[in-house]
């Protein structure tokens, strides 16, 4: 007997957001205009279903055939090299999403939206 399960993209996005924000050098996730529209739509759909929206601003997820693509928009601290923070986020998100969901992460794209003096 096989048991199939589906993990919704908003859940994966929330897991990815948690991994990204916990990475050293990340100040915050930054949704940008497209991310704001996506987050608003997701939150409205979850509230309509009676659920509390999972925090995932700045994260977009696409799942195809059980493989996951994650896009993250974030702000880094000026004390850290932005490229190094981006690579660390890619590794952390890929590892954490796989650990928490069992799904294969094909790609994690990181966009540095701003660098803040900290």
If helices are DSSP runs of H or I spanning 4 or more residues, what is the number of helices? 3
Fraction in beta strands: 25-35%
Q: Uncertain runs with pLDDT below 50, 5 residues or more?
A: none
Largest sheet: 4 strands, mixed
Principal-axis shape: globular
Helix content: 40-55%
- Element order, helices and strands? HEHEEHE
Span between termini: 54 Å
Count of individual beta strands: 4
- Output the radius of gyration: 15 Å
- Counting helices, strands and paired strands, the structural category is alpha+beta
* Overall pLDDT: 84
Describe the model.
This protein is of the alpha+beta class and 118 residues long. Helix content is 42%, strand content 29%. The protein contains 3 helices and 4 strands; from the N terminus they run H-E-H-E-E-H-E. The chain has helices spanning 9-21, 32-48, 82-101; strands at 26-29, 59-64, 67-77, 104-116. Strands 1, 2, 3 and 4 form a 4-stranded mixed beta sheet that branches. Helix 1 (9-21) crosses helix 3 (82-101). It is globular, with a radius of gyration of 15 Å. 32% of the residues are buried. The mean pLDDT is 84.
């Amino acid at each position: 007997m096989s048991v199939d399960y589906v993990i919704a993209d908003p859940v994966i996005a929330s897991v990815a957001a948690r991994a990204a924000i916990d990475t050293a050098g990340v100040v915050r996730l930054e949704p940008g205009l497209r991310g704001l529209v996506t987050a608003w739509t997701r939150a409205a759909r979850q509230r309509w279903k009676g659920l509390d929206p999972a925090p995932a601003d700045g994260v977009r997820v696409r799942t195809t055939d059980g493989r996951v693509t994650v896009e993250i928009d974030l702000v880094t601290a000026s004390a850290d090299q932005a490229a190094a923070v981006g690579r660390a986020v890619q590794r952390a998100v890929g590892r954490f999403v796989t650990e928490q969901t069992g799904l294969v992460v094909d790609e994690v794209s990181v966009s540095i939206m701003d660098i803040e003096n900290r």
